[in-house]
Design a protein that fits this description.
The protein is an alpha+beta fold and 483 residues long. The protein has helices at 4-52, 67-76, 252-265, 282-287, 306-309, 329-336, 379-382, 396-399, 444-453; strands at 56-64, 81-92, 96-99, 107-113, 132-141, 146-150, 172-177, 185-196, 206-209, 221-223, 229-236, 247-251, 271-272, 275-279, 296-301, 317-321, 324-325, 344-351, 354-361, 363-364, 383-384, 389-393, 411-416, 432-436, 439-440, 460-466, 469-475. It has three domains: 43-116 and 130-270, Beta Barrel (Thrombin, subunit H); 272-364, Pdz3 Domain; 374-475, Pdz3 Domain, CATH 2.30.42.10. It is 23% helix and 33% strand.
Amino acid sequence: MVTPAITSRRRGLCRVAIAVATALSQAAWIEAEAAVVLDDLSRSVAEIVERVQPTVVEVRVRSLGTAAEATNDAATGGPNLKQGGGSGVIVDPAGWIVTGAHVVEGATGVEVILASPPRHAGGSIVGRRGRRLPARVVGVDPETDLAILHVDGGGLPALAFADSDRVRPGHLVIALGSPHGLHESVTMGIVSAIGRQRTPEDPLVFLQTDATINPGNSGGPLVDSSGGLVGISSFILTQSGGSQGLGFAVPSNIVRAVVRQIREHGRVRRGTIGVVAQTLTPELAAGLDLGDLTGVLVADVVPGSPAADAGLLAGDMIVSLDGRRMENARQLEVNLYPREAGEQVELDVLRAGRHTKKVVAIGERDDPEAPNLVRFVRPRRDALPALGALVVETNPEIEALLPPLRTGGGLVVVSAEAPRSPDETALLAGDIIVGVGRTAVTSRAQLEQALALAPREAILVLQVQRGTGLLYVPRERRTAPLP
């Protein structure tokens, strides 16, 4: 006879056994589902890569060497040209390609290598290299680090633009390109952040990603989970020279605007409304009796500018732009940055406690283009190692390509190394060096003498004509002066 206690114990064991079996069954089901999900993700990524890869090209560049390389060449009698390159992506079947401006900087010749032909089933996993095509640099926009190339021939595979304004932190992205010359490389990650700036004063914003980007990826595409172009890889932050998960890409909406303008005008026509804007701080608000307002204060209106024509006045508060609230001056500049001359924006302006709408036309920003002086350069002669730059003396032929000179001459920068520290200001192509400290220079000999007399440890302060204005550029000495 089975006692009630034994019966109860058996029932309990049965319940435990059923629960364990159910748990094991659920675990197996979850594991199977996870495997299906991962398999689907893997297959989807592979399909995206197969669709996008034919649009990605390797960019090969012949260019002038740096000042240090030119000096070494002079000592060895070697060649004055160097080989470099990066990546690019075809955005139009007619042969229009986007790459990085720094990829083709100083180029004397450019060619692109198309993607490898499709592999046949059972064929070698080492594919044949794609066709090599000579490329023409149609336009360069250093401000966004973008360049547009063109190759002859139609019917090329092209990648469609996606809307970068829809990108959010956490979205999956894939980077493609030729890092370190390893063509057709693919990495995957997420968007780490949006709206990143290289410096607080920079109106250009970047997408940040942890998808591995290395030297040679520059100019290559960053694509979303649908295979659309959301960015062009631009630069990385690194202490080792390799990827540390801090890659930055130019958003596709900016890329699209640059491509359109270069194709239509041969250059980028940037817009301005003609105001000097400041963030309204508590101190400014208190001093101007504006209470606890926050936003963008119009500090000045340029006479004759679109803002002046629309009736804006110094002291106005810009509350919103096209319905988007403006919280600081930097946000206003960032939102105006991609606008093209000829467009219109609607501003909500607060004046004397009353709101009013102002429709303001976008005018063209005065951005003098850097002259193309490559044909005047002889690297062995024109290298200036102390400044890490290639410079040429002005002469009548060169002066015809420059803005009116403020002095009797000077040295025009053709190319220069990037700043080495936050204490430096970039020396840009087209800058005209007219002084070192308080010493005016108009010739190569005078510049070299002024550099030799400057204190060894001091930061060199160059007086430079940029456009039609003068400014001072602090520059670390690249080489020690002779004793």
